[in-house]
Amino acid sequence: MEEAHELERRVVVHCHGGPGARYAIEAGADTIEHGVYFTRDDLELLAARGVPLVITYGVYDQGMHSPDVPAFFKEKCVDVMARYLTTIAIAREVGVRIAVGTDTVHRDLVAELRALENAGYRRAEVLQACTGWAADVLGLPLVGRVRPGNAADLVAVEGNPLDDIAAVGRVRGVMQAGRLS
Prior knowledge:
It is a single chain. This protein is an alpha/beta fold. It has one domain: Metal-dependent hydrolases (TIM Barrel), CATH 3.20.20.140. It is 44% helix and 14% strand. The chain has helices spanning 2-6, 19-27, 40-49, 58-65, 71-94, 109-118, 123-129, 132-138, and strands at 12-15, 31-34, 53-55, 98-100, 154-157, 171-176, 179-180. The chain has a 4-stranded parallel beta sheet. It has a 3-stranded antiparallel beta sheet with strand order 5-6-7, with no helix packed on it. Strand 6 (171-176) and strand 7 (179-180) form a beta hairpin. The protein is globular, with a radius of gyration of 17 Å.
């Protein structure tokens, strides 16, 4: 951690829980990815240190619905998904900064957003988790929020995500750097 930070590099730790989580947080990790099995103590330490948690709930949701996944793993996904919702809810309760990640396994942003909603986040917070809060986690101050001076990266969706979070998955147009794609 010290070497990476001396070189002005961020340290991202992929961890589901256990003693490694606490070691990573105490050693100075910049973000933690996954966190399925984090305890309340782990989450309180994350909050106290200001270390964000990047959730990847959709990996398990994808596993549940993929025809290529064996039955034993689908059963495990059911347990993991229930546990993950509890972890995410506790994270909100204790003040952990959250961002949405998709890992590299799936690209279903809506599954991630629904998980946050099911764990008690308001829809406005859910949208922040995949925009401004995520930009903060990535150290990108000029993206993720609509305001003067920021990059004009916008997505037009069918419907209002504040009424139906699944609208985020119905993309109808993309503006990148102020230009329609």
